[in-house]
Write a structure and sequence with these properties.
This protein is 41% helix and 19% strand. It is built from 15 helices and 16 strands. The chain has helices spanning 30-40, 42-49, 63-76, 83-86, 91-97, 105-114, 117-137, 201-215, 232-240, 253-264, 321-329, 333-345, 355-379, 389-397, 421-432; strands spanning 6-8, 16-18, 24-25, 142-149, 152-153, 162-164, 169-172, 175-179, 185-189, 220-225, 244-249, 276-284, 293-301, 309-315, 401-405, 410-414. The longest helix has 25 residues, at 355-379.
């Protein structure tokens, strides 16, 4: 018989603590995510579409179960493979997966060693299938494809990790595309740390834009990006598909000269102590472009300064120049999406030495990000819908609960003093209103 170690609390000697409370879970809110999983078919899609070229499969933990376990670990805040050992007999997760024990850290590590680029592609396919289902639940006619890169710091001997001068760090330089209106991740691709911002951007964006031709052929699709994506091949791809783009241009002597000529006629010497802002447009063709394109310039002179500062944006939209600039500036929301994926789902933790293994880890983390983002948008009450992952985890996931067996039912008895009980119940009602996909 195992003895239970107790601890006396010094602030009150009569108060003691031990870990003999029984098989309790601290993550009962995962029940909501599993119910959402049941509705949109996450587990079924992973089991049917995951590809791992492996001659042997674990008897108790198939590859698809390892992926699903990793997704739920991310949602609950257990991001590292080592957490799998700590969660081995966690009562809620073992019940959800119908197992006596979860996959261990060695089992997870073996999965990532077996995974290759085909696994990455299959996880991308899983994300796309689920995304299409969400769009069927919530049809939309406007999409803003915010494309950007980010920096993932690496501290070991990971293949592909190199020094990036822009981020001033050693690591990876992945490519992302988010829907600027919803925050959905439309695509993510791990790249070596020393590649330029727009490297492979055309190949990356092509399939994303093609999907909308099938899902929403009459929708307005706009690609938005900073000056790192001012690639004429990307312009031509978007134009060929008859979509729109708003992309910033790096300043150069020709652009400066054109803008300065317009600014000179607007400068008011008697108004030098007040800030001035003007918006103009002109046609411009760079040496590497096959045709002239519309360029919008924002001319801003801070109070007390004599010279204007210029911001150049190339676009094929018909908006007024001021509205083009405003629309471009809204791409700042993408930084919040990337921050959410990093801080909330640990998408930047690339701990494997193999590049393909790290690419698989990125896809699993972004799948968890999308599951949470869809769950937030479709199921959460308005009061907490805008909460970030860390806050949402504390409010709806970290709830104590105990499983009680009876003759006909398995009942999860949750904490009676749960602060967000009403939000939990409302969320469950909202989940059950979603049509079930088969």
């Amino acid at each position: 018989m195992n003895s239970v170690q107790g601890f006396t609390m010094n602030f009150n000697p009569r108060m003691r603590v031990n870990f003999d409370g029984g098989d309790l879970t601290s993550d009962a809110g995962l029940l909501l995510y599993m119910e959402f999983d049941h509705r949109i078919g996450l587990s079924d899609v992973v089991r049917s579409q995951l590809v791992v070229h492996d001659s042997a499969s674990h008897r108790d933990h198939p590859n698809s179960d390892v992926v699903l376990q990793k997704v739920y670990q991310h949602i609950a805040g257990y991001h590292t493979d080592d957490h799998a050992d700590d969660l081995a007999v966690e009562p809620l997760l073992t019940t959800l997966f119908g197992k006596d024990r979860l996959a261990s850290q060695p089992t997870m590590s073996r999965f990532f060693e077996k995974a290759d680029i085909s696994t990455v592609k299959s996880l991308e396919s899983v994300n796309q299938t689920l995304q299409q289902r969400v769009y069927e639940i919530e049809p939309r006619k406007q999409f803003v494809c915010d494309v950007d890169s980010s920096g993932f710091a690496a501290y070991g001997n990971q293949y592909g990790a190199n020094f990036n001068a822009h981020y001033q760090q050693h690591g990876f330089h992945p490519l992302f595309c988010f829907d600027g209106l919803t925050g959905d991740c439309l695509g993510a691709e791990l790249r070596a740390g020393n590649v330029y911002t727009s490297r492979q951007a055309v190949r990356f964006m092509g399939p994303i834009l093609s999907r909308y031709e099938k899902w929403a052929p009459n929708a307005l699709v706009v690609v938005r990006g900073d000056s790192g994506f001012a690639d004429p091949d990307l312009f031509e791809l978007i134009e060929a598909k008859r979509h729109k783009y708003v992309i910033r241009l790096k300043s150069n002597p020709r652009l400066q000269s054109i803008a300065q000529a317009k600014a000179n006629s607007l400068l008011n010497p008697n108004n030098v102590h007040k800030r001035e802002v003007y918006y103009r447009e002109f046609m411009y063709q760079a040496a590497s472009w096959t045709k002239a394109r519309r360029v919008v310039v924002k001319m801003e002179r801070p109070a007390g300064e004599l010279l204007f500062q210029f911001t150049f944006i190339v676009t094929n939209m018909a908006l007024q120049p001021k509205n083009v600039v405003r629309f471009y500036c809204q791409r700042g929301h993408m930084e919040n999406f990337i921050k959410e994926a990093k801080n909330g789902l640990a998408c930047d933790k690339m701990s494997s030495t193999d590049f393909a293994s790290n690419a698989v880890k990125l896809q699993i983390a972004m799948l968890a990000y999308n599951i949470n983002n869809w769950f937030r948008r479709l199921c959460l009450p308005g009061k907490i819908r805008t909460n970030r992952m860390e806050t949402l985890r504390n409010k709806l996931v970290k709830i104590a609960g105990k499983l009680v067996y009876s003759g006909r039912y398995w009942t999860w008895k949750l904490c009676s003093s749960c602060v967000y009980r009403k939000e939990f119940i409302q969320t469950l009602h909202n989940v059950n209103r979603i049509p079930k996909f088969t």
